[in-house]
Amino acid sequence: MSVYDFKSIEKKWQKAWDEKGQYKMDTRDTSKPKYYCLEMFPYPSGKIHMGHVRNYSIGDVVARFKKMQGYNVLHPMGWDSFGLPAENAAIKNNIHPHVWTMSNIEEMKEQLSMLGLSYDWDKEVATSTPEYYKWTQKIFLEFYKASLAYKKNSFVNWCPSCETVLANEQVVQGQCERCDSLVEKKELEQWYFKTTEFSEELLADLDGLDGWPEKVRLMQKNWIGKSFGANVTFQIDGSDQEISVYTTRPDTIFGSTFMVLAPESHLARDLVAGTEYEPVLDEFLAKMHTMTQIEREAADLEKEGKFIGKYVINPLTGKKMPIWIANYVLADYGTGAVMGVAAHDDRDNDFAKKYDLEIIPVIDEDDKMINSGQFDGMNKDEAFDKIIEKLEEMGKGNKKTNFRLRDWLISRQRYWGCPIPVIYCLDCGIVPVDEKDLPVLLPTDVEFTGKGESPLASSKTFTECSCPKCGKPARREIDTMDTFVDSSWYYMRYADNMNSDRPFDTDVVNNWLPVDQYIGGVEHAILHLLYARWFTKAFKKLGWTSHDEPFKNLLTQGMVLMDGSKMSKSKGNTVSPVELVEKYGADTARLFILFAAPPERDLEWSEQGVEGCFKFLNRVYRLVDELAPVAKLELEFGNLTKADKDMRAKTNNTLKKVTEDLNDKFGFNTAIAALMELINDLYKYKELEDRNDAVIKEAIKAVVVILAPFAPHLGEELWLMIGKEASVFDIGWPDYDKSAIQLDEVEIIVQVNGKVRNKINAPVGIDQDVMKNLALNDEKIKEFIEGKNVVKVIAIPSKLVNIVVK
Ligand code: ANZ
Ligand code: ZN
């Protein structure tokens, strides 16, 4: 008897698949229906972790199953390979980001290949390679031409001691993550993508994404944040200048007793200009610049502000309202000005109490208007519309919807990102790089000091250039793009990754998109998915593609936990995938991960669970090994006994259940559980003296086929052992035999006074009276009804008999 030598089995099949090109596919082949299975590509940190193993194991089962079902499956993998860690490594270890990144990719690819994943590596992309970022730059230029990319001033986080711009994540409680200095705000010109161009579509199309988790759709919806209200204009007292505010509560206007402006707004600056309040604003602004956006928007922010010396007139009450600046008003939302309603808005309430401002309630407990003149007594919803009408009549306001969604700031003062392909000329201004000069390559003569605005500034060969328009000396843009730009379109490039004329061929991408199944972490539920959706809409507008949404179905997998908390390097509670595979094999690792929890749920790591899966695979191996000679014979079913029929029913029922579980339901754990049951039954059945070898053969084949997508190496090996030719993944997914699962007998539940007391077997289609008799005469049931009065017997055909006794 041979043993389950997973090491040599896995090595053997990985080599065989490789040599045969098992997973190569042609995206231009349209002879079969397409299926695009995509897992979120990783940042190449150098080491895979259990989260990757989980993500990719799930994707691999889906891809293999769909291929067996006859689809042409696109299942690619690549690298989100620009980003800060490479740059930090460069600063720390004096190694070039490109070298560091490529060696990490090498390492990770090797680790992934240990898992036996069915990727077509010919489709690989790495976003930091010139072959890829050339097209990211081309896309930028197209967006620029279409006014979907533009430049404007904005504030960035600046560390005065590191002399560098910090990303929001690098600011911890207002301090630089590296040196703890107080972070300042510095105004720089920055590039933006106009995400707001598609706010309506991004919101409306969420409705059609019924293959997405509801919670993710909701998160997107909240992020886009559409609100309904009005713009209202207030005249400045003693001037004909006006201030416009955005409010979602025009019904509360009679209760508005002060106005609050964002300290950064131009409005505030204009109002104090040349007055004694100018230094007040300056001092307040300096304080604001030490705070991050996140802190400013926090609900528990301690409200603070200053009066700036002027008043506005409330258009409906005619009363004077003092104008303040306050930390809770944001410059880039609405108009940057708020009508303060202390009685009905929590933030305004905190503020009014602190600074002793007037508080006038205008809506009572029954949602009826009070203190609101002609609107008194009206329901507040009615007043909402009526007040807007009134303001419109007066020329003081109008209905307005607003989106919380901002344009996307894509400039990064970093080296290891995609260079923004524009040139600045003193005479011509911003000049796009000619397409024939793409890619704008990252220079290699850069010093990584961690200081300065952008590392690219230190490269003369890079910054100095000539203007494409007039030929005069000019300089290049030194900022690079946010890495979310790279990951917003990689899944389109996969479909046509060798294209050297354009980012992708329109027909090819129109055929392959949307992705049929996208799988990844819920941490990308907002930004990555939103940006990818926005790119899709932008490409459609450019006429490059015709689909509306990038991802038809989305699965957000749960976390991998150890002792209840997320496995992470910082907590030191990790299990190394490499060590795991070395100890038990990839098939055990995959099986455990898929069996231990449904994919959307968190998964608690258990060494015992891994052990259990390993034992199970050993058990399967021994069983198939023992029965292989039988499985190779030419056999007929002949006459079947009850036991034979039961075994056939089990086999075919299992096949049916697994097929249903895998068909877009992600019931991996229940499918594996069903397989385990089948194995148990088969172990018992094979010991029967009058066993039927044709029944065994049928069961063994089902076992191997069902196992294959989960444990592909062992699947192939067993397939060979039972005399078939590789590959088990080239055969079609088998249909189950319907006639085998239509049993001659059914199980009938017998209840006495509503309590289940026994289960009895009865022929299918048995008469109700015969059913009742069988139940009443059953030995076990007799014990429960002896000496009692049978009042009533109810029978539900083929299911249940209930006996009522007194
Ligand atoms: C008066 C009022 C009364 C308001 C009330 C709310 C409740 P959403 O729903 O998020 O769109 N607001 C407007 N612009 C702002 C800014 N730049 N920074 C901070 N807050 C701002 O929020 C709209 C509401 O947020 C607006 O409606 C405004 O306050 C405030 F009982 O106006 B409201
Ligand atoms: Zn010029």
TrEMBL record:
<dbReference type="GO" id="GO:0005829">
    <property type="term" value="C:cytosol"/>
</dbReference>
<dbReference type="GO" id="GO:0005524">
    <property type="term" value="F:ATP binding"/>
</dbReference>
<dbReference type="InterPro" id="IPR009080">
    <property type="entry name" value="tRNAsynth_Ia_anticodon-bd"/>
</dbReference>
<dbReference type="GO" id="GO:0006429">
    <property type="term" value="P:leucyl-tRNA aminoacylation"/>
</dbReference>
<dbReference type="InterPro" id="IPR002300">
    <property type="entry name" value="aa-tRNA-synth_Ia"/>
</dbReference>
<keyword id="KW-0963">Cytoplasm</keyword>
<dbReference type="GO" id="GO:0002161">
    <property type="term" value="F:aminoacyl-tRNA deacylase activity"/>
</dbReference>
<dbReference type="InterPro" id="IPR013155">
    <property type="entry name" value="M/V/L/I-tRNA-synth_anticd-bd"/>
</dbReference>
<keyword id="KW-0648">Protein biosynthesis</keyword>
<feature type="domain" description="Aminoacyl-tRNA synthetase class Ia">
    <location>
        <begin position="405"/>
        <end position="606"/>
    </location>
</feature>
<dbReference type="Pfam" id="PF09334">
    <property type="entry name" value="tRNA-synt_1g"/>
</dbReference>
<dbReference type="GO" id="GO:0004823">
    <property type="term" value="F:leucine-tRNA ligase activity"/>
</dbReference>
<keyword id="KW-0030">Aminoacyl-tRNA synthetase</keyword>
<protein>
    <recommendedName>
        <fullName>Leucine--tRNA ligase</fullName>
        <ecNumber>6.1.1.4</ecNumber>
    </recommendedName>
</protein>
<feature type="short sequence motif" description="'HIGH' region">
    <location>
        <begin position="42"/>
        <end position="52"/>
    </location>
</feature>
<dbReference type="Pfam" id="PF00133">
    <property type="entry name" value="tRNA-synt_1"/>
</dbReference>
<dbReference type="InterPro" id="IPR014729">
    <property type="entry name" value="Rossmann-like_a/b/a_fold"/>
</dbReference>
<dbReference type="Pfam" id="PF08264">
    <property type="entry name" value="Anticodon_1"/>
</dbReference>
<dbReference type="Pfam" id="PF13603">
    <property type="entry name" value="tRNA-synt_1_2"/>
</dbReference>
<dbReference type="InterPro" id="IPR025709">
    <property type="entry name" value="Leu_tRNA-synth_edit"/>
</dbReference>
<feature type="domain" description="Methionyl/Leucyl tRNA synthetase">
    <location>
        <begin position="41"/>
        <end position="181"/>
    </location>
</feature>
<keyword id="KW-0067">ATP-binding</keyword>
<keyword id="KW-0436">Ligase</keyword>
<feature type="short sequence motif" description="'KMSKS' region">
    <location>
        <begin position="566"/>
        <end position="570"/>
    </location>
</feature>
<dbReference type="InterPro" id="IPR001412">
    <property type="entry name" value="aa-tRNA-synth_I_CS"/>
</dbReference>
<keyword id="KW-0547">Nucleotide-binding</keyword>
<dbReference type="InterPro" id="IPR009008">
    <property type="entry name" value="Val/Leu/Ile-tRNA-synth_edit"/>
</dbReference>
<comment type="similarity">
    <text>Belongs to the class-I aminoacyl-tRNA synthetase family.</text>
</comment>
<dbReference type="InterPro" id="IPR015413">
    <property type="entry name" value="Methionyl/Leucyl_tRNA_Synth"/>
</dbReference>
<feature type="domain" description="Methionyl/Valyl/Leucyl/Isoleucyl-tRNA synthetase anticodon-binding">
    <location>
        <begin position="644"/>
        <end position="766"/>
    </location>
</feature>
<feature type="domain" description="Leucyl-tRNA synthetase editing">
    <location>
        <begin position="221"/>
        <end position="392"/>
    </location>
</feature>
<feature type="binding site">
    <location>
        <position position="569"/>
    </location>
    <ligand>
        <name>ATP</name>
    </ligand>
</feature>
<dbReference type="InterPro" id="IPR002302">
    <property type="entry name" value="Leu-tRNA-ligase"/>
</dbReference>
